[in-house]
Amino acid sequence: MEANTRWVALTAVAPIAWGANYYVTHEFLPADHPLYGAALRALPAGLVLLALCRRRPHGVWWGRSAVLGLLNVSVFFVLVFLASQLLPTSIASTVMAVSPLIMMLAAWALVAERPGVAHLAGAVIGLGGVSLMLLGGAGGISVPGVLASAAAVLVSSVGHILAKRWNTGTADAGVLASTAWQLTAGGLLLLPVAVAVEGAPPPMSPSAFLAFCYVGLVATALAFAAWFAGLRRLPAGTVGLLGLLNPVTGVLLGTAVAGEVLTGRQLCGLALALSGVALGRPSAKVRQESAPHRAVSGRADLPRRTAGPSSPSSCP
Predict the structure, then answer these.
(1) Cys-Cys with 136: which of 25, 68, 257, 266 at CB 3.0–4.6 Å?
(2) Are the beta carbons of 138 and 81 closer than 8 angstroms?
(3) Alpha carbon distance 46, 49 (integer Å)
(4) Residues 31-62: pLDDT tens digits?
């Protein structure tokens, strides 16, 4: 149980970092360069992880890295950048709260992982809480911004479950390696498109440079590695519900830093969202069933401490 709690805590780093990312993007990054914004977020993060991992893709992972890079990085980052610029911090992050339900359905369809009753209840309660936060916000809501957030949820949920499916069995590349490959592939796919569509890169002020450092190193390299590590060790329903910390962080940060108004309705929504996260904790039965699987696989996650002869793809 203690080890499981550590994996939950590690995974929670990702949605908290992503919730803060909305504010940083909205306040400090150039609004008229979404393609460059996404490319400069992905490529440096991927190269940092590649330097740590020191492995290239092999075999089927050339194609898989391209697919995951397109879904989880290229398309997703552009959509998130647009949502961050078009919506207030709290609204941009709350729309993403439908992701637990989408991720559970994707896990059921792609990896035959049927969601439990507690997970479904947590997703419904969390979504209800987020709906209260969304409806209780002040100011108008940009329809294109909401659509960008919703599309980002759909694309990333499918991409994350594909990563979970492909990072099992003999073809498992390891969390650090597969994360580095897809971030690098996504950034390389974005860069020529950004040059063709947006022309010269945007001017880089000191505040924009620091913002890109946070976006790339914390909200991308660290967050994605933690998220995919959690996807390997925890049920997809649990990881999806931890994603509710994304809107909670966005709302609280928007209120504390950006001066957005937090209404009584939004406070009730926050309480419901946190209740949904609590319902997603893996049961003792799940923990007992996952232990033999980890013993058979003989693989560690992030970081890997040992690797036998049958694990040539593990990172040092």
Answers:
(1) 266
(2) no
(3) 5
(4) 888 999 999 999 999 999 999 998 999 889 99
